[in-house]
Write a structure and sequence with these properties.
The chain is an alpha/beta fold and about 300 residues long. It contains 11 helices and 12 strands. The strands form 3 sheets. A 5-stranded mixed β-sheet has the order 4-3-5-12-6.
Length: about 300
């Protein structure tokens, strides 16, 4: 199975170093494994180009077969997991670092209600392959992937924030503010697209690859930043400079593979997270950006 995954990831990335990183093995181990596989088969599977590994005709056939085999094994695993009726075992949840702070009370309740479930949380901005890398994803996105079972939890509003110190020091029209912007890693965000369309490039003084980094820079007084309201509104060192902007909004989705949602432990976590984040109250208000006035100046 490891050899099959090496073939598919190497074909996808064209880089042995990147394939080794994704598979969490040493570069030398991946190189030896590929060489041993080619030795057993008696055929070269990849041409080692100057910039990339390119499948040979034999390699293309091997990669196609490997993908089919992995797909069939993953499908079998999902079907077998779906027959589990006990709310015990490990559930892997992938979400963003910023959303994790909203989940702490739900995790406490999960431990009390289902002590047999061990929750493993992976914080990452990229989507994982559900059923192999994770069982559940809690993700902001405009639309949910069609092949997944999706539950719409809430609207995530985004507004523009700055520190009180920055606003005291830099009272000026919006088009003259120093802006903190997402870099290419966050280009999928509505805030990134809005800034590209509405903010002059020479007004951008800082870029970052994560929302926590933008939050930290805004809090330090570097400039103004577009942040989810559940981050900006809960930080007393920040004030709203602009209200929530519709074009920046996204939807919070709870996602799993259709075969996994019948698994008792996965179902238990799905239901608890949905109940926590969908019910009226502080969490939904924070996500939606409700109830907080625009503050152009810090209050005295």
């Amino acid at each position: 199975m490891d050899d099959l995954r090496l073939l598919t990831v190497l074909a996808e990335t064209g880089s042995l170093a990147e394939a080794a990183r994704r598979l969490d093995v040493h570069h030398a181990s991946a190189w030896r494994r590929l060489g041993a596989l080619e030795g057993r088969l008696g055929v070269r599977l990849f041409d080692r180009g100057r910039h990339a590994y390119v499948p040979t005709p034999a390699g293309e056939e091997a990669v196609a077969s490997a993908r089919r085999a992995i797909g069939e094994l993953d499908e079998l695993e999902r079907r077998l997991m779906g027959r589990d009726v006990r709310p015990t075992g490990i559930v892997r949840l992938t979400t963003t670092e910023t959303l994790l702070r909203l989940l702490a009370p739900a995790i406490v309740k999960l431990r009390a209600k289902h002590p047999g479930i061990v929750l493993e949380v992976v914080t990452a901005d990229a989507f994982f392959t559900l059923s192999r890398d994770a069982d559940i994803a809690l993700r902001p996105a405009v639309n949910a992937p069609e092949h997944l079972a999706a539950r719409k939890l809430a609207t995530i509003a985004t507004a523009v924030y700055a520190s009180h110190k920055y606003l005291e020091r830099r009272a000026r029209p919006m088009d003259e503010h120093d802006w903190l912007a997402p870099d290419d890693h966050l280009a999928h965000l509505g805030s990134a697209r809005w800034i590209d369309a509405h903010v002059a490039p020479d007004r951008i003084v800082f870029r970052a690859s994560s929302l926590p980094a933008l939050h930290a820079a805004a809090r330090a007084g570097v400039g103004v930043a577009a942040l989810p309201c559940y981050m900006g509104d809960t930080d007393p060192r920040l004030a709203r400079v602009l209200p929530p902007i519709e074009e920046m909004a996204s939807t919070l989705w709870l996602l799993t593979h259709p075969d996994l949602r019948r698994t008792a432990r996965v179902r238990a976590v799905l239901d608890l997270l949905a109940a926590r984040l969908m019910r009226p109250g502080r969490h939904r208000e924070l996500l939606a950006g409700d109830g907080v006035p625009i503050t152009a100046r810090p209050s005295r």
